[in-house]
Structure formats: structure tokens, C-alpha cells
Amino acid sequence: MPASYILDIGGVRSLLKLKGISELLENDPCYGPFFSTIDHITDHDLSISVDISDPPDMTDIPMLFDNGSSWSFYRDSGSSYIKLYGTGHDDILLVAEMNGDNDEVSIKCDERFIIEGAPDIISANPVRYPLDQILLMYYLSNRRGLIVHAAGSSINNRGLIFAGRSGSGKSTISRLIAERSKEPLLSDDRVVIRSNGKGYLAYGTPWPGEEGIASNSKVEVGGLFFIHHGTENIANEISPIDAIERLLPAVSSPWFDREAVAGILSSCDDLISNVPCYDLHFYPDHNIFDFVKEILS
Hints:
The chain folds into 2 domains: 4-127, no CATH class; 145-296, Alpha-Beta Complex (Phosphoenolpyruvate Carboxykinase, domain 3). It contains 5 helices and 19 strands. It has helices spanning 131-141, 170-178, 240-247, 258-274, 287-296; strands spanning 4-9, 12-19, 23-25, 35-38, 46-52, 63-66, 71-76, 79-85, 92-98, 104-109, 114-116, 122-124, 145-155, 158-163, 190-195, 200-203, 218-229, 234-237, 277-282. The strands form 3 sheets. Strands 4-1-2-5-10-9-8-7-6 form a 9-stranded mixed sheet, covered by helices on one side. Strands 13-14-17-16-15 form a 5-stranded mixed β-barrel, surrounded by 5 helices. Strands 3-12-11 form a 3-stranded mixed sheet, with no helix packed on it.
């Protein structure tokens, strides 16, 4: 009997069911804390079947988006399709079909995923970046959750989210806090933030930045900081209007998809209305740890 797997990112448990495949291999150490083998079907949120077979004919299915290099997105009759490419648009690696509720997915993979052939086929895991991030983005879009381009850390069991574009200092501030904090960091590049009805929880992801921080852990969010390099440490609490302007560029969102964007915008509005938000200019030394700890207290 083929093995089944759980990919647990952001508290979303994806069940990976194999068709015609005996085993999946995931060799990226960043995925290790998130990827596990199970011997029986267990509770899960997202169901994903994985098969080595020819992709469906998508000639007549409208394309909504093409990122220009590695993937494109299609929709027809209540189903959405994600197509991943190799060296070009004629080189299809896989096609993932997703239902209208974004909680059931069928993946057809090219034979290049096969590591060992018949009779016991071993395949490389296809549910990894960028596909896993796209699937999770859609699953969360109507379930009060966000993927944010941010570093996440914890001080006294309260989460600090440091959001910003590439080069804003997320890896730097993560490293400085890690060298002082006795609590695990979540990530130095992307975190999942979800409402639990009483507040917001931040989760680590397997998509790290320069420091390679990828922890499958969670913490209650205590503050959201929009970071900038500076000559000294300065933090100013900002209004929800200013916060939403800074948050939107840091959120993973399918801007080509009106329905999904509506849910994501609603989650952004709820987050910045219920969590303190700050502009943070920081100087890259260890004083930043005590500085943000004082803000939380």
C-alpha cells in the first residue's frame, strides 16, 4: 500500500495521497519539520492526490495569469488549474487542478519527478515551492489567513512580525534577535498569520531567507513592524490606514483573482485593526532586542 504524507504549514494540514507511486522523497532540510509520513488517513484540511501521468488538455481553458517564467493560472467551470514549467512554456512539469473551495487538489506530474522506477515508483515531492505556497495562499484566502513577506520571532511568548520587501532587513533583524532570544524564531522571510477567533497566530514556513530559519512553530502575534534600515532604533505606532498601505505589498495575493483578493483584503483589514502596527527604523546591533522587547511590555 502506498504511503501517505502530511504537509503541515501554517496550521493547515495537507494530506498527500499517492496514485501509482509508492513513496515521495523530500530532501530539502527546510521542509523536514513540516513533512511527515503517516500510516493511516488522519485529520486534515486540504486533500492532495499525486499522480505520474500526462497533464490534461487545457487548450480551451482560459488563462487568468502568467508570471512569465515558472507558472501560470487557469480557471474553468468551477475548477482552477496551476501549471508549472521547466525550461519554457512548452516544457510542462505538472498541472494541479483545484476545486472551488480550494481544499481538494489533483496533481498530474511529468515522469521527470520519478527517482526510481517500477515496480515501486519513488517520486520527488511536487508539493513544494512554488506550488505549496500558491495552494496555501488560495486555501487561506477565504479562511481568515495570510502569507506575509516577513520575519517572525517571539519574546516572552509574544510574536513580533517584521514585514518588508527584499533588502529591508528581515534576515538581519532575525539573526540579531536569534542571538539574544531563548525562544525559537519562526522564519526570516515568510510567515503565515491566521485568526483564531480571539487574536492572531503567526506560524513559521519552509520558505526561509538568507539565515535559513524555517521553524514549524506558532506564537500569538503581539505586534506588526514595518522595518527599515536606520542609524538608530526608532518606532512609531501608525494608523490602520498607514498600516494597510504598508501591509498590502508584503502579502502574497493573486491580484488577478477578484474573489480571492476580496477575502485577503478582508483579512488584512481585520489584522491591522486588531494588532498594534509600527514603523520601525533599526540600527543593526543587538540593542534592537531590548528595544522591541520594551515596546511589547
